[in-house]
What we know:
This protein folds into 2 domains: 1-45, no CATH class; 52-116, SHC Adaptor Protein (2-Layer Sandwich). By secondary structure, it is of the alpha+beta class. 32% of the residues lie in helices and 26% in strands. A 4-stranded antiparallel β-sheet has the order 1-2-3-4, with helices on one face. It has 2 helices and 4 strands.
Amino acid sequence: MGRGFGVMLAGTAVLLVVSVAAAQMGGGTNGGRGGGMMGTETGKSPAPEITAEQAQKAATEYARQYLPGFTVKRTAPLTGTHLTMYEAELTGPGGATRVVHVNAWGTVMPFGGSRTR
């Protein structure tokens, strides 16, 4: 009985190690297609990157909605990673300047606070 229990315990330990390794490698519920939040669980590729014109339009809409009186002075691409983001400089009343970032899919995020010259 002691030998049978030892074999059963060893088999259980091997099964546990294999299960943990499979979970860490992403072989869980999505069939091994990668893991984590950035995996391709749905099998679809992300939306295509926006253009400079679309980034300008997104920044202009953001200014119209959240920063009345501000206009987009310039938009510049931010490269260095595998995706292109954009930085838009907004100018407003009294010489105030704001900077927003537009990610590769068109989401606008404020960057820093207000600056006056």
